[in-house]
């Protein structure tokens, strides 16, 4: 299946540069984890809050105005906390408010509630919210305060409960059980919250390092691609314009040299615009490619022909541009090193969706292994350029001449 090269290119270039990674990307997993914890806290608070509310309403006959004010002090911030966790707005403020107001309600409990030593086995409605206050602290405070709430609230509740029962023996037994239960559950809640946040932070750190690595690789790849493109551009256009200017002997040749120089300078100024260099992906017919090659031969004053074989076909615009530039470089090499002897170009449609350009000359040939590393005429302008569009290049040379075959087929 053919790949969408434009989409891949856009996705690759959208990778942020090193050091430019946004906070939203770095904290993605942490933010999701905070949202999950808030939703779970809202569900647990709603269930236990409803249970505490029912327990308080069943004792309405024994309540006065102070007890009602105590209920408002507890259930008002609790309702705000539930709404904030569900809506994901002001979660820290709402949870912190409830955590503090619950502590105040606990401290006021012995003053407001009538002491009754006969209720040792009946848990007061405020007991059901001890661990909800711990959850609120987990969402609102730093780890030290979270553990302080988890350790301290059960003992505060136990002391208040004993005060209510005048420290009678029956209250000691039930209160000890309640304190141990809430203490263990509170520590588990805070520990799980801390563990989940640490895991999320580790995932975010790993993602951040991975994106930094990809960004560095993208920057290196872009720099290398720009270097190759610049080298190919210098060799193809600038050097060809200089050679044409040096060899210009007539007014027409000088005019062509000026045109070539102007084109080379324009392309050099637009080096960073890869689309402008390579063209778009609109199909280009073989006739247009042949016309471009004939124009190249005419500009160089070469006495050569471009032969067409096979049925007419079309190739994507970028492929056509790459093949024309590679063939132009092959023509330049034939003119420079072989004097244009036996220069001949064949444009052949191998299939309905494929094209092959063959550039032949009758020069003395050359040794590919003897070409210096700094000479990019073949490596960059022909081989690399065809490889960039998923094409193939084959170079055969001997003392009888050189054949350069450029081919591309629809994937």
TrEMBL record:
Membrane-traversing stretches: 36-56, 68-87, 94-112, 124-141, 148-164, 170-190
Species classification: Bacteria, Bacillati, Actinomycetota, Actinomycetes, Micrococcales
GO function terms (MF aspect): kinase activity
Keyword terms, alphabetized: Kinase, Membrane, Transferase, Transmembrane, Transmembrane helix, Two-component regulatory system
An annotated GO BP: phosphorelay signal transduction system
Record-linked InterPro entries: HATPase_C_sf (IPR036890), Sensor_HK_TwoCompSys (IPR050482)
Protein name (record): Putative two-component system sensor kinase
